[in-house]
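== Polypeptide entry ==
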Amino acid sequence: MTIRVLVADDQAMVRGGLRMILEDQPDITVVAEAADGVEAVEQARRLRPDVCLVDIRMPRIDGIEVTRALAGPDVPDPLRVVVVTTFDLDEYVHGALRGGAVGFVLKDAGPALLVEAVRAAHHGDALVSPSVTLRLLRHLTAVRPRHEPHPLSERELDVVRAIARGRTNREIGAELFISLSTVKSHVSAVQTKLGLRNRVEIAAWAWEHDLAR
Protein backbone atom coordinates (compact mmCIF):
# COMPACT_ATOMS: atom_id res chain seq x y z
CA MET A 1 0.00 0.00 0.00
CA THR A 2 1.44 3.37 -1.04
CA ILE A 3 1.66 6.12 1.59
CA ARG A 4 0.45 9.42 0.10
CA VAL A 5 2.36 12.43 1.43
CA LEU A 6 1.96 16.21 1.20
CA VAL A 7 5.14 18.29 1.62
CA ALA A 8 4.78 21.88 2.87
CA ASP A 9 7.84 24.14 3.00
CA ASP A 10 8.43 27.67 1.75
CA GLN A 11 11.77 26.77 0.13
CA ALA A 12 11.52 25.03 -3.24
CA MET A 13 14.92 23.41 -2.79
CA VAL A 14 13.88 21.86 0.51
CA ARG A 15 10.59 20.60 -0.93
CA GLY A 16 12.52 19.05 -3.81
CA GLY A 17 14.96 17.40 -1.43
CA LEU A 18 12.20 15.96 0.74
CA ARG A 19 10.37 14.69 -2.35
CA MET A 20 13.55 13.00 -3.62
CA ILE A 21 14.14 11.27 -0.26
CA LEU A 22 10.54 10.08 0.08
CA GLU A 23 9.97 8.96 -3.50
CA ASP A 24 13.16 6.92 -3.35
CA GLN A 25 11.09 4.57 -1.16
CA PRO A 26 8.89 2.00 -2.93
CA ASP A 27 5.95 2.53 -0.56
CA ILE A 28 5.83 6.36 -0.48
CA THR A 29 4.66 8.91 -3.05
CA VAL A 30 4.41 12.71 -2.77
CA VAL A 31 0.97 13.75 -4.02
CA ALA A 32 1.35 17.51 -3.53
CA GLU A 33 3.67 20.34 -2.49
CA ALA A 34 2.74 23.60 -0.76
CA ALA A 35 4.84 26.76 -0.47
CA ASP A 36 2.92 28.39 2.40
CA GLY A 37 0.58 27.51 5.24
CA VAL A 38 -2.69 28.47 3.58
CA GLU A 39 -1.86 26.41 0.50
CA ALA A 40 -0.89 23.49 2.75
CA VAL A 41 -4.26 23.50 4.52
CA GLU A 42 -6.19 23.83 1.25
CA GLN A 43 -4.27 21.04 -0.50
CA ALA A 44 -4.46 18.74 2.53
CA ARG A 45 -8.22 19.16 2.92
CA ARG A 46 -8.76 18.59 -0.79
CA LEU A 47 -6.44 15.61 -1.30
CA ARG A 48 -6.62 13.97 2.16
CA PRO A 49 -3.03 12.61 2.10
CA ASP A 50 -2.04 9.88 4.55
CA VAL A 51 0.70 12.07 6.06
CA CYS A 52 1.42 15.81 5.90
CA LEU A 53 5.04 16.96 6.33
CA VAL A 54 4.87 20.55 7.53
CA ASP A 55 7.63 23.09 8.14
CA ILE A 56 7.34 25.46 11.12
CA ARG A 57 8.25 28.78 9.52
CA MET A 58 6.05 29.45 6.48
CA PRO A 59 4.36 32.55 5.02
CA ARG A 60 0.73 33.48 5.69
CA ILE A 61 0.21 30.96 8.50
CA ASP A 62 2.96 28.99 10.21
CA GLY A 63 3.31 25.26 10.71
CA ILE A 64 1.79 25.31 14.20
CA GLU A 65 -1.43 26.87 12.86
CA VAL A 66 -1.42 24.43 9.94
CA THR A 67 -1.11 21.56 12.40
CA ARG A 68 -4.02 22.83 14.49
CA ALA A 69 -6.15 23.30 11.37
CA LEU A 70 -5.49 19.75 10.12
CA ALA A 71 -4.99 17.71 13.30
CA GLY A 72 -6.23 19.77 16.23
CA PRO A 73 -8.66 18.51 18.89
CA ASP A 74 -11.61 20.29 17.26
CA VAL A 75 -11.03 18.81 13.79
CA PRO A 76 -13.75 16.21 13.05
CA ASP A 77 -11.63 14.01 10.80
CA PRO A 78 -8.00 14.90 11.60
CA LEU A 79 -5.07 14.22 9.31
CA ARG A 80 -1.68 12.95 10.44
CA VAL A 81 0.88 15.74 10.61
CA VAL A 82 4.64 15.41 11.06
CA VAL A 83 6.45 18.69 11.69
CA VAL A 84 9.83 18.92 9.95
CA THR A 85 12.00 21.87 10.91
CA THR A 86 15.50 23.24 11.36
CA PHE A 87 14.54 24.72 14.72
CA ASP A 88 14.12 22.57 17.85
CA LEU A 89 12.99 25.39 20.14
CA ASP A 90 10.83 24.22 23.05
CA GLU A 91 7.97 26.52 22.03
CA TYR A 92 7.87 24.88 18.59
CA VAL A 93 8.01 21.34 19.95
CA HIS A 94 5.29 21.89 22.54
CA GLY A 95 3.17 23.93 20.14
CA ALA A 96 3.34 21.25 17.46
CA LEU A 97 2.54 18.37 19.82
CA ARG A 98 -0.27 20.27 21.55
CA GLY A 99 -1.60 21.14 18.09
CA GLY A 100 -2.00 17.45 17.29
CA ALA A 101 1.22 16.56 15.43
CA VAL A 102 2.20 12.89 15.60
CA GLY A 103 5.84 13.57 14.88
CA PHE A 104 8.54 16.22 15.19
CA VAL A 105 11.66 15.69 13.09
CA LEU A 106 14.67 17.93 12.67
CA LYS A 107 15.86 18.44 9.11
CA ASP A 108 19.40 17.46 10.05
CA ALA A 109 18.25 14.15 11.55
CA GLY A 110 18.85 12.41 8.23
CA PRO A 111 16.76 10.72 5.50
CA ALA A 112 16.27 7.45 7.40
CA LEU A 113 14.54 9.12 10.35
CA LEU A 114 12.36 11.19 8.03
CA VAL A 115 11.16 8.07 6.22
CA GLU A 116 10.65 6.28 9.54
CA ALA A 117 8.55 9.19 10.83
CA VAL A 118 6.29 9.07 7.75
CA ARG A 119 5.78 5.33 8.10
CA ALA A 120 5.17 5.62 11.84
CA ALA A 121 2.56 8.34 11.32
CA HIS A 122 0.84 6.29 8.64
CA HIS A 123 0.62 3.29 11.00
CA GLY A 124 -0.78 5.39 13.83
CA ASP A 125 2.47 5.64 15.78
CA ALA A 126 4.44 8.74 16.70
CA LEU A 127 8.08 9.62 16.25
CA VAL A 128 10.05 12.54 17.66
CA SER A 129 13.71 13.21 16.87
CA PRO A 130 15.87 11.62 19.60
CA SER A 131 17.50 14.91 20.67
CA VAL A 132 14.07 16.49 21.06
CA THR A 133 12.74 13.47 22.96
CA LEU A 134 15.59 13.66 25.47
CA ARG A 135 14.84 17.33 26.13
CA LEU A 136 11.14 16.61 26.58
CA LEU A 137 11.85 13.77 29.00
CA ARG A 138 14.34 15.85 30.99
CA HIS A 139 11.67 18.53 31.29
CA LEU A 140 9.06 16.03 32.42
CA THR A 141 11.32 14.27 34.91
CA ALA A 142 12.26 17.65 36.41
CA VAL A 143 8.60 18.07 37.39
CA ARG A 144 7.46 16.30 40.55
CA PRO A 145 5.70 13.07 39.44
CA ARG A 146 1.96 13.02 39.92
CA HIS A 147 0.35 10.05 41.69
CA GLU A 148 -3.32 10.98 41.61
CA PRO A 149 -5.85 8.20 40.94
CA HIS A 150 -6.46 7.23 37.33
CA PRO A 151 -9.06 5.00 35.61
CA LEU A 152 -6.65 2.64 33.81
CA SER A 153 -6.55 -1.12 34.25
CA GLU A 154 -3.28 -2.96 34.91
CA ARG A 155 -3.14 -4.15 31.30
CA GLU A 156 -3.75 -0.62 30.02
CA LEU A 157 -0.91 0.57 32.26
CA ASP A 158 1.36 -2.08 30.72
CA VAL A 159 0.54 -0.66 27.28
CA VAL A 160 1.13 2.91 28.47
CA ARG A 161 4.56 1.97 29.88
CA ALA A 162 5.49 0.31 26.59
CA ILE A 163 4.40 3.36 24.57
CA ALA A 164 6.51 5.58 26.86
CA ARG A 165 9.51 3.38 26.04
CA GLY A 166 8.92 3.96 22.33
CA ARG A 167 7.46 0.57 21.45
CA THR A 168 5.27 0.18 18.33
CA ASN A 169 1.93 -1.61 18.49
CA ARG A 170 3.46 -4.78 17.05
CA GLU A 171 6.29 -4.70 19.59
CA ILE A 172 3.80 -4.17 22.42
CA GLY A 173 1.75 -7.13 21.22
CA ALA A 174 4.81 -9.37 21.15
CA GLU A 175 6.01 -8.12 24.53
CA LEU A 176 2.64 -8.62 26.26
CA PHE A 177 1.58 -11.71 24.27
CA ILE A 178 -1.59 -10.08 22.94
CA SER A 179 -2.90 -9.52 19.42
CA LEU A 180 -2.37 -6.34 17.41
CA SER A 181 -6.10 -5.59 17.49
CA THR A 182 -6.10 -5.95 21.29
CA VAL A 183 -3.20 -3.50 21.56
CA LYS A 184 -5.07 -1.00 19.40
CA SER A 185 -8.18 -1.43 21.58
CA HIS A 186 -6.15 -0.74 24.72
CA VAL A 187 -4.52 2.35 23.16
CA SER A 188 -7.93 3.66 22.13
CA ALA A 189 -9.32 3.01 25.62
CA VAL A 190 -6.39 4.82 27.24
CA GLN A 191 -6.88 7.87 24.99
CA THR A 192 -10.60 7.96 25.77
CA LYS A 193 -10.21 7.52 29.53
CA LEU A 194 -7.45 10.11 29.86
CA GLY A 195 -8.67 12.54 27.19
CA LEU A 196 -5.44 12.23 25.18
CA ARG A 197 -5.16 12.57 21.41
CA ASN A 198 -2.13 10.54 20.39
CA ARG A 199 0.77 8.36 21.50
CA VAL A 200 3.03 11.33 22.21
CA GLU A 201 0.54 12.60 24.79
CA ILE A 202 0.25 9.08 26.26
CA ALA A 203 4.05 8.92 26.64
CA ALA A 204 4.10 12.37 28.24
CA TRP A 205 1.36 11.32 30.68
CA ALA A 206 3.36 8.23 31.61
CA TRP A 207 6.50 10.28 32.36
CA GLU A 208 4.53 12.86 34.31
CA HIS A 209 3.07 10.07 36.48
CA ASP A 210 6.41 8.31 36.99
CA LEU A 211 5.28 5.22 35.07
CA ALA A 212 8.02 5.15 32.41
CA ARG A 213 11.09 4.54 34.51
User: Anything to note?
Assistant: The longest strand covers residues 28-34. The two ends are 37 Å apart (CA to CA). The chain has two domains: 3-137, 144-208. Residues 180-194 form the longest helix (15 residues).
